[in-house]
Amino acid sequence: MSFCETQQARIAPLWDRMLTHPFLLQTRDGTIPHATFASWMRQDYLFVEAAIPFLAALIPKGPASHWEPMTQAIGALIRELRLFEERADAVGVEIRGSQPSFTTHAYIQFLLATAQNASYEEAYTVLYAAESAYHDSWKMVRDGLDRSSPWWPFVENWAGPQFAAYVSYLEVELDKLAAEAGPDRLHRMVEAFETTVRYEVAFWEMAMTGEGWPGIPSADPALSIGREGKR
Amino acid sequence: MSFTDELYESAIDLWDAQAAHPFVRGIADGTLDPAVFERWVRQDYLYLAEFSRVFAWAAARADRLESMGWYAAALHLTLNTEMGLHREYAARFGISVSDLERETMWPTTRAYTDFLVRTAADGDLADLVAALLPCAWGYVHIAQKIAAADRPADQRYADWIEQYSSDEFWLAAEWLRSEMDRLADGASPAKRDRLRHLFVLSSRYEWQFWEMCWNGEAWLP
């Protein structure tokens, strides 16, 4: 089995938990409350924004053959931001200027710390795991969601043929990287894969529960001064 | 008022909440369940490895030789002295070094350390120090408050208080404060806001770390 197949098999219960999360099931069935979906849109918009510097930080670390696909992936993220903005306008959601929940913040820090501090192979594992998780999640939603739903364009984006081809490409490239990795690096790649999927599950959970930050609500200046390191 | 005094004021609710936290109070009066304290030993060991890494980033980023030397000394203090003490603590709780190293980060430890490493990598030296300060200064601040009262009967907690209220840790925290004040001197209002943001965020994580140890924590199954 390839590295990606092995990882999918290893964390199959976690993957199933993700695909059967109430957020996805209710989105598929058209019963998700508008406010819950809007909350997810705001948080995922922040995440997509942060994925741009994540990918950009990987470019100088990767082989030259990855530079152009990585640049195209950044272009795709920018189009995703436009998709969020267009959908938000269409359904009357204010998407800009939101503050990250704890899970969004933590997941973003994980992405950016991995890009800066971990090997290219680990960061590429995170990229594949996250994109693959989204592809499978939205394919599940596609199987039941009415095409007239205001959320259908998200299905088209992540469950569509273009995204499927991108995920397949990442899988092939990640398997090549894994084949060249030594045992220590491979072990870290395995950990990175699992942590990413745990964050994916936590992200749906956060969207469903409307989680903010744990703790002391009165001491919130940190969360009111700019969100993700705008300098 | 110095800039670090302003930082303290902006996070005072979080700092007070830490000093009053049942975990901290349990160390102070010696009533903390050792099984609960073990969580801190295990998770803080993982935290310190990343905290050390951030000091290494600081040494590399330093804009003058004196600072470079201090960051290198702080790295040594954390990586060798403090982590060595953790290994000794762990032994007193029956936890081996290999157990410590096999430990998995809980979500709060993961998030906090990723935040520090990411800030060290993406930000400038002032950003990095603002994010580090709530741990380096906060522990001394808390330990000195506790140390004013009688030591608990449990020697393991008495040693914890002794260590973090020691001159060595106090001097390191004081130097880091003066470094923060130096780096913030002349900074634009927007930059000072950003530094305050990072300081408060780390202070929040510090409080969350006590919460994590007190309650236990796990990733979603």
Description of the structure:
Chain A is globular. In chain A, helix 4 packs antiparallel against helix 10, helix 7 packs across helix 8 and helix 7 (120-142) packs antiparallel against helix 9 (161-180). Chain A has helices spanning 3-10, 12-19, 22-29, 34-58, 67-91, 102-117, 120-142, 152-159, 161-180, 183-209, 221-224. Chain A has eleven helices and no strands. Chain A is mostly helical and 231 residues long. Helices cover 74% and strands 0% of the residues of chain A. Chain A has one domain (14-208): Up-down Bundle (Heme Oxygenase, Chain A), CATH 1.20.910. With 221 residues, chain B is mainly α. Chain B has one domain: Heme oxygenase-like (Heme Oxygenase, Chain A, Up-down Bundle), CATH 1.20.910. Helix content of chain B is 81%, strand content 0%. Chain B contains eleven helices and no strands. Chain B has helices at residues 3-10, 12-19, 22-29, 34-61, 65-92, 97-102, 107-122, 125-147, 155-164, 167-184, 189-215. The longest helix of chain B is centred in the N-terminal third of the chain and has 28 residues, at 34-61. Chain B starts with a helix and ends in a 6-residue tail after the last helix. The mean pLDDT of chain B is 94.
